[in-house]
Amino acid sequence: MAGLTAARRRLRPTAWSEAWVAGAFVTPAALVILLIVAYPLVRALWLSVHDVVLTRPGEAPFVALANYARELASPDFWAAVQRSLVFTVVSTAIELVLGIALAVLMDQPLRLRWLLRSLVILPWALPTIVNALMWRWIDNAEYGALNALLTQTGLIGSYQQWLSNPSTAMWMVIVADAWKMTPLVAILVLAALQGINREQIEAARVDGAGVVSTFRYVVLPLLTPTLLIVLVLRTMEAFKVFDIIWIMTNGGPANETQSIAIYAYQTAYRAYDFGRGSALGYLIALAIMLLAAVYLRVLGRVGRS
Amino acid sequence: MGPTARRRLRRLLRATVLYGCMLVAFVAILAPFAWLLISSVARPVDLLAKPLSFIPSEISFDRYAALTIGANPDSAAEGFRAAMLNSLTIATAVTGIALVVGVPAAYAFARLRFPGRSRLVLIFMATYMLPPIALVIPLYQIMSGLDLLDTTMALIIIYSSFVTPFVIWIMRGYIEGISPELDDAARVDGCSRLGALIRVILPVSAPGLVSTGLLSFLLAWDEFFYALVMTQTNAAKTVPVALNDFIGRHGIDFGLLAAGGVIAAIPPVLIAFVFQRYLVAGLTAGGVKG
What we know:
The complex is a heterodimer. Chain A is mainly α. Helices cover about 75% and strands about 0% of the residues of chain A. Chain A has a single domain, classed as MetI-like (MetI-like fold). Chain A has helices spanning about 1-10, 15-50, 65-70, 75-105, 115-120, 120-125, 130-140, 145-150, 170-195, 200-205, 210-240, 245-250, 260-270, 275-305. The two termini of chain A are about 35 Å apart. The radius of gyration of chain B is 25 Å and the shape is flat. Chain B contains 14 helices and no strands. Chain B folds into 2 domains: about 5-60; about 75-290, MetI-like (MetI-like fold, Orthogonal Bundle). In chain B, about 45% of the residues are buried. At the A-B interface, helix 1, helix 2, helix 4, helix 5 and helix 6 of A face helix 1, helix 4, helix 5, helix 6 and helix 7 of B.
């Protein structure tokens, strides 16, 4: 061992040679990532300060921040932001609460626990598009299984237009999203639970703490880092949601499920307004980066304490 | 009632509640998917009946045959077959590229000290978080300029840009978990850094590579937004786009939609069940170490 340490000391490369090796190792990835991302980012910035509408080819006058100003003054933009926020907060909250509950359940010494643990990966593995199609079909107004189930058991009187009723559409999308993503939260939380030292829990129980207070004061604090990371990933994903809504409702009815990403897509590809579409893309990216920065700071603080 | 009886009652109550919750979890997980499966094999008469009978009177696998191996495919089946092939090509190529360029970078971030390291990691992660909507318009113009619109190549290039940071993120966590003594020993034996990476780190991190590769494949298989914008014909449409087309063209044939959905779900669901252990390890490595 001593020989190895000595050899390692002799090996300790100069900072320069290590930097060269690192450069060689990182460059291919940097090329792939940065070329495909950096140039479009610059180009999008250019587009966002010009008036570029595809139906008027050849003209692209510089308009400074007019595209941004127009969006920030538009009620449609803020309505879409609000819908994205509702989707993000509600779906993330449901996924966290149910995910923790499911993880705790899978952590109990129960028969068939192995089966639940392996089946739980199914919703997560289902492609987003298939999940959305499945729920679109379940929620169908005329032939859907949900309507059939609820009327045939007498819970509702008549078939409901779940996805074309403005007051229920968003909730149905949230249910579909929660069905797919709750298992991921449960899998991550279960892994964290299994990493907790059982003796700590035993000690709390011996000291007379009940199940609930043991969970609240012993387990939950130990889960905090995992939960925070799950929270970060889920909110950022949810805020840019497009696929599941696009397949289930196309942003309808009456724009009631039009998230900010769908609003931007429709601005860019229905109105062919690439200038405004790019400005919207930048605004969304900025919001997400801001969110990431706040989270990084919070995570850093938790990690240190 | 004595204390023993009370304890037994309590244990019984606890078991009832827990198994009750478990039953709810099983039903919640399985019922929607079971209905998708049933819909894909039930006759239209049964699917459109009111009141609906959840157990179909007879089942047939005609739709699966029509979409996959049936002779004389109609335009829907033809499109779906082409899309399966495109999706497989794209997801495989993207996984390969992302692993080849991502793993050395992950090694560098985990093991080597060089100026700007932590900043570069942050930049890479930030690109992964960028919403596609912010990049799609310029990418569309670039692909159009390069004459790559509606090709699988365009999607391979674009997907590589967000799967690579994902690979770096997870593999960095894996490699950091491997004892540095191992590569030092290899280097004492005269290996270069690249040699240490190939001969020591790669074999030791094989489970990590498998899970990262599988997760990368799933990411590419699942992608919808870029594919929706960049593809027009069977030459490049992927499975998610083909399924999206089904809604428009076969809005009423729910059974066909369900069958298409099940087929599209087979590769990822198979991967998930067969490699569950690896996947969970990969997810937690990426999710927890960040």
